[in-house]
Structure formats: structure tokens, C-alpha cells
Amino acid sequence: PFSSSSRRKMNLKSERRGIHVDQSELLCKKGCGYYGNPAWQGFCSKCWREEYHKARQKQIQEDWELAERLQREEEEAYASSQSTQGAQSLTFSKFEEKKTNEKTRKVTTVKKFFTASSRAGAKKAEIQEAKAPSPAIHRQASIETDRVSKEFIEFIRTYQKPGQDIYKQCKLFLDTMSHKRDLSIEEQSECAQDFYQNVADRLQTRWKVPPEKVEKAMDEVEKYIMTRQYKYVFCPETTDDEKKDLAVQKRIRALHWVTPQMLCVPVSEEIPEVSDMVVKAITDIIEMDSKRVPRDKLACITKCSKHIFNAIKITKNEPASADDFLPTLIYIVLKGNPPRLQSNIQYITRFCNPSRLMTGEDGYYFTNLCCAVAFIEKLDAQSLNLSQEDFDRFMTGQTSPKKQESDSFSPDVCLGVKQMCKSLDLLSQLNERQERIVSEAKKLEKDLIDWTDGITKEVEDIVEKYPLEIKPKSQALAAIDSENVENDKLPPPLQPQVYAG
Fold this sequence. Notes:
- Among the domains are: 41-74; 151-233, Serum Albumin, Chain A, Domain 1 (Orthogonal Bundle); 240-398, VPS9 domain (Glutathione S-transferase Yfyf (Class Pi), Chain A, domain 2, Up-down Bundle); 417-451.
- It has 18 helices and no strands.
- It has helices at 4-16, 23-26, 45-83, 92-104, 119-131, 143-157, 161-178, 185-206, 211-233, 241-254, 272-287, 294-316, 322-336, 341-351, 354-358, 360-377, 388-396, 415-465.
- Helix 12 (294-316) crosses helix 16 (360-377).
């Protein structure tokens, strides 16, 4: 506030210039008591900064609302265009054509969320977008991708200027990767790893962000980036990941006969609580394929491993060790047969944040899963303490390990399990009976063929030994009187006589 002496000096200066000055005109419009500057619309410097900051925040908020409204309109337009084509089904050739077009199409959408723009410019852009068809209508909208994008924007708002920098770096990386689709998957992996390292270094050195906030920010960056890149880098056609997946699945199906006793698994599924833990572990390892982000896939592996540790702890009544964990994990993988197992492992290895893989429990459990898959691929008779004969017969399906007799079950076992074992025993007996019938039928067929061949050979030998001679046809015998034509002393032939009674 101005003192009385300073006000008098201002009045004197104004009077010398011949100008009458009202005291209220000298003060700030906001009423803070400070002198207002006409160049700042009558506000003092402090109040002007506050008003400018409010106006800027209001403009940014309006830009956000405009961008969200345009996005909603695009989604509604796409949904309406898709509803008209819902009754039509794509043939295989059209599906392949669509898949190719999706790979080659490059759509670049830039939305300026953090720069203030005038209302006229926003309205002009809105009119132009309303006239021209939006590219989002021609591509398949992903609900998950949109949701992750909104969550990422909401997250980086809390980081203010570092958040703006993160967003710009992510958009630049996505635009760069869209032009590098022709690179090998290893080169794309190197680009992603370099990007993670650069963003982390930038947050630590330039913006002085604390380590715990850097780690959280990197998790969100990975989630945003890999959700957008998932369909391009997961199990790409340029690799043999799909071939490895089929080989592992076929191998696991062939090992369906492996029992927990063969692997020395310290888990008793007869305990209901342990059985529930085993089911949850199998569910978690199967659910890994439904996730898009490497961190989420690692989380599924971690949850599965924790269920395994709990099952071992309940069975043994003591904490589980690493020697108990790995055989149980192998058994869970064999029992669950997770889809696209090799592709998921390769995807995590290539595009996960390296700091998460190299440290922490996620990296430890992921390493054990890789070891379990490698063990399954090289599993042989010696690994299961079996003879090579038994191993080969089990692998070919000729026989299977002896099942537990239903009478030897404890009273606590579920009735359904007992009935299932009885059904399996019955099926095994029927299978043996069918194999025996098929064997006897083949033997009977062979005997019939041998008997037919023997009879045919005997007939041919007899015909060869005693050939059938067919004599020519003899002349017909002449009548008695055929040569006695001139002898007319022969009596006439007898005629029947009729006597009247």
C-alpha cells in the first residue's frame, strides 16, 4: 500500500503536468492496495500474474474438453458406421486384406493439450474436422487403448512440466516407431530399451524427480507405449515365435501323464485349500496371455508364484524353499498349458522395463518360469527316474501311469474326485478290452485270409494233377428201321383198339 507521503508526491507530479488524478485510479483493480499498471489492464504485477495463470488454466481446460468431445464424436461415428455392417461377415480373403491394410496404414493424430490456443483457432479446427472424414472412423477403435491413453494423461498432469516433457517424448517415440515397422523385432526392442533409459535419465538429471516417482512414471510410460504398440510387436510374423508356441503346446500335451510324484512336487491336492491354490495358480498363468503390458504379464507370473508358495507352505506346514518351488511351477505349467507361452516370454524379455526384470521378485519369478519351460522342452526318462521303455510307452500313449485306487482315498476326499477316478478306471478297462477285441479281430481276419489262400491252392493242385479231359460229341444213333426201307413185309405198327363194352 502507498504511504501518505508517496501519494502526495504522485499528486504533485500530476498537478505539475496539469492532470487531475483520482486516488482510486492509481490502485489495482483487484483492490489489493498496490499501484496498478495500465499496460497490465489496471492490475498490479502480482494480481496480473494470477489473472494470467487463471486465464491460461481455463484455456487449457477448454482445450481438453474440446479434444475429449471430438474423440467421443469420432467413436460414436465409428460405432454407427459399424452397426450398419454388423450383419455382413468377412470372408477369409477379405479378412487377410483388412489385416494387411491395418499393418500398412499410418494414422497420425496430434492433440495439443498443454499449449494454449485461441477460441477462433479451436473453432476453425473443429469446423475442418467436421467437414473432413476422421481417420478414426476407418480404423478399429480399441476401448482398452483409449482407456489407457486417458489414464496416462491424467497421471502426467500431476507431474506438471516434467509430465508435459514425458508426453512429448512418448508421442515422438510412437511417431518414430510408426515409421520403423520394417525393422527386425530385435532392433525395435533396442529402440524401446533406449527410450526407457533416456526418459528415466531425463527425469532424474533434468527435472530432479525422486527415484520412487521416476519408477512410477516409467511404469505408466511402459503401459502407455506398449498398449499402443502391442499389435505390432507381440508375436510378429517376421519371427518364429508362433512356431515355438505350437511346439511347446504339443510337448506339454504329450506330457499329460506326468504326475506330481514323478516331479517330487511337495503339494497335496487332497487338501481342499491347497487344491484351490493350485487352481488359482493355473488361472493366473493362463491369464498372462490376456494382458498387453509386460508389467501386467509379470504381475500374473508373480501372483501364480505366490499361490504356489502358499500351497507348499500349507502342505508342509513350513515356509517353502526354492528347491520346492521350481518343481511345483513345472507341474503347474504342465497342468495349465498356458497359451502362447513362448511368445509371452519373448515379449516380456524384449519390451519390459529392464530395471524391473533385473531386480525385485518379478524378475526372480520370471527367471524361474524360463527355467521351467526349458526343463519341459528337454524332459527325458532320466529326469523322471523312469526307464526309457516306460517313458516311450507313456509318450506314445500305449500305457499310462497307474492311477490311485478309489478305495484307498481318505474320507475327506471330495465325492466328485472319487467318481472321477472310478470313471477313469472304467475307461482304462474299456480301452484294454477294446484293444484286445481289435487284436483278436485282426487275428481272425488273418486266419480267414490264410484259410482262403490254402483252399485255393489245394484246388489248383488237384486240377493240375487230375486235368479234366472233355471228349468230342458222339454221332446220334440211327432208328431201327432207318436202313430197312425196302423190306415191306414188316407188319404195320400196332394201333389202339376200342372195344364196346
